[in-house]
Amino acid sequence: MQIEAQHYPGKIERRDVNDWLDRGDKIIQDVEDKVSKVGCPFHICVAKYLDEKTGKMKEIIDEGEKYTKLDAILVVDDLSRKGVAVPTSELQGRDATKAEILGYLMEDKIIRIGVCGLGGIGKTIIIKHVHNELLNRVTKFKKVVSVTATRQFDIIKLQKDIASQLKVSLPDEDETMRAAVLLEIRKLIECWIEEGFIAPMETRHKMNCQGHAILRTLEDNCLLEIVHTMQSRVIDDEDENAVKMHDLLKAMALDITSKSPRFLVKFGMKIRELPNKKQWTEDLKRVSLTRNSIEEILRDLSSPECQMLTTLLLSHNNLSNFPDSFFEQMNELKILDLSKNYELKSLPSSISELKNLTTLLLIGCQQLRKVLALSNCQAITTLDFNQSGIEEIPEGIEMLVNLKYLDLNYTNMRKLPEGMLQKLTCLQILALRISGIQVKGEVLWPLEKLEYFDGVLIDWNELSIFLKVMQSRRERLRDYRLDIGSRGEGTFEYQKHWKRLF
């Protein structure tokens, strides 16, 4: 039958098909019951009953003609299933390894498991058996999927393979185009905080909540569209959702900001050099040249005269250096984003004189080894050096008494200046766990406004001190990730109300 040809693992009959089959089966069962009770199919009452049921069966058969066509779709995905078993061979002598992996999978603290060994020893077979075992067990996993990634894998293909297994659709766009259309909610709210669009509040958490309230208002008025990303569905975190603005609204916004005070926006336009000097006017307020291919700054732009400029976004370009005088005439500059300029090797000395600078983002600047002194930039509230090549903390950072956000994760730093952290009493977010930096629990005592800590304590003796700090800050310290010792002898996590900050 055609339905049997389509009925393979992971599929079930469509509801209307199933109802049709059930009605036919019921008539057959009713007739069999009637005959068994009377004992003779030729009895007059049975004959009349059979005639009636034959008519109804003919109606059902006529109704089912649409299901007999060659192109008829008779089955759908079984969404109630955790997943589909993968074919594999018998597992020999590896039951203990399988049990060990299954044990790790049940532990909340373990987020990644590696099965290593020479080719041909049965690693893939073990994983297939683990996959199939999870399908049959009652576990915390709602879905179990298996996706293969080669060494030379393509990230977009991998995303689509996972999305396909989860029954989530992804648009047929490349990574750059999707990034140009969507903006992560968490990044947007951080931007609003840095720009001052959200009024200062007692805690970062309250400002984050205010950002979500603004987003809901914009969504309710059809000014922004909330897009549920694959990642947000998998980890159930609304901060991983994204927002999208209609092209007409975007065009209107750009038109409004093209007049004084002026914005200059060339996002994702693949330009290879900065806009010409004529566009860098005195009334320029904000500039976004993100996601382009800018490699160098021409001589006639060695020092743009932009006295009103407050925001300069140059992330995701190919810049390697700047003229030393580039920022000299940008006295009002508050936000500078040079993130993801992977070839950036040095910063101009004029950055050190930006007295109104509040935000400096150098995320992913892997070739950058040093940041010049920041002692004159005492307005700074946010420093993000995540995934940069910076090897030592900038000179004068202990003087940044307004600093609220410091991210040193994935840097090449090994230590901090003695007494530095204790002086940064306004810190709300401190991240330095994925680096060579270890701290003592006592350095956190002065940080009374700390809401998020991601770090490494020197040894177990410091843990009790940290827990005392945590106990005294129960209402404010909402989220932390903690390692003990340089070898990660222990890992602790705590989250309160707030699923994820960044």
Automatic annotation (TrEMBL):
Keywords annotated in UniProt: Leucine-rich repeat, Plant defense, Repeat
Keyword set includes Repeat: yes
The keyword Repeat appears for this protein: yes
Ranges that cross the membrane: none
PROSITE patterns per UniProt: LRR
The protein's name: NB-ARC domain-containing protein
Family: Belongs to the disease resistance NB-LRR family.
GO molecular function, one term: ADP binding
NB-ARC domain: residues covered: 96-188
